[in-house]
Amino acid sequence: MQRVAAPAPFRPGLGSALFLAVMLGSAVATMLRMVLAAWFLLPADFAVYATIVATGAFLSTILSFGAIEATIKNFPRLAGQGREAELLPESRRIMKRLALRAGILGVPVLAAGALLDIEWLRLSGLACLFALNTAYTAVLASMQRAAGTAATLAAGTALRSGGVLAAVALAAFYGDLTMVLIAETLATVLTCLVSERIFFGAGSTADPASGADDIRPPSSPSRFDGVHLFLAYSLISMPFYLDRLFVTTTMGLNAGAQYAVLALFLTAASLLVNTLAQRSGPEAIRLVQRDGNARAARRQILMWCLIASLIWLLAIAAAAAVIATGLLPKGLERYLVDPHLLAPIAISGALLCTGLIEFLLIALDRERAMLRAAALFALTVVATASAVAWFKLDLADFMWLLAACRAFYLLLLLSSLPWRDKAASGA
Length: 427
Description:
Blueprint: H1 14-40, H2 43-64, H3 67-80, H4 87-116, H5 119-147, H6 150-173, H7 177-200, H8 225-251, H9 253-291, H10 294-324, H11 330-333, H12 342-351, H13 354-363, H14 367-391, H15 395-416
């Protein structure tokens, strides 16, 4: 495999604007696939689809047990050491382990749900298998962030999102939930394989069995970094991916379908933050690892947090205007999206810029501080959800309280940052 140049620092300019245009277009395609599913599927089927997709994304973190999270830091460090040839073999080892775990856990649960006719059990098994979709795209994105140029990263992302959109749109047009799930799975696997072939060739000739389970560059400060990140991301993502299951269970299927549509806006905000993190996050890691410049990394991440929040607030304002003026497509009107419910969604979406700050903490080797913040955030969310269920609060109350929890998490992360450069390493 030929060595590819490490991405240039991600700063505003024409090149960055083009990169953002392609990446945001890919994010729109990802968002559009959910919109089309909501449009063509019955509301009950869409609620099931949204739950499987979200729960599967959460389970991908559980199945990885730190393997995917470790690549966030280790892949850019390998690329910085000129060891790009090790990326593809390592990614394949990770996916083999995850596929085995998904099969061991998901197949029996799915079979039990089918035999016993227990719907939630069957859906849990499907979500466990569906988790491999998210895991595969996460590992591939981690490789491309680390070793690809801005052009290859954008092209690979556009290929995957466009291919999945086309497959889901075609399947959803026939209104069949099973077809949608199968089409999305096949499209994800195929586009990831094509991306590997195009951007990474046939892979390294290195012996796949010669490496350890987790890549351990000498500069890594702790062999538990991957586990710390696994635990942190599991706690952080819990309310983002399990909120639909909570609403459906406590407030009914109608509220679940309505919230599934509202959660699409949060998905859009998350895609925006992830788009910026594709470049700014690994560059922050390189600034600290290569140049020892924690101040520059901190300034860059905070700048893009501000930009992400401003873009998101403009987008949600435009969406509110569309809904308020009655221009919402008829296929989505049945979900009864109330414009006033977009206010807590707007705040929560802006607060998702914490995803960028998490990258900064990773760059500064503060995984343990990030884990502490994530644990406090998760405890706050669980307490809030318990109060919502106990006092039978409505959907709007739940959304405002969840926004307050995200604001608390932002404060926790900011307090975990080393604002003095001499404290930039260690947790």
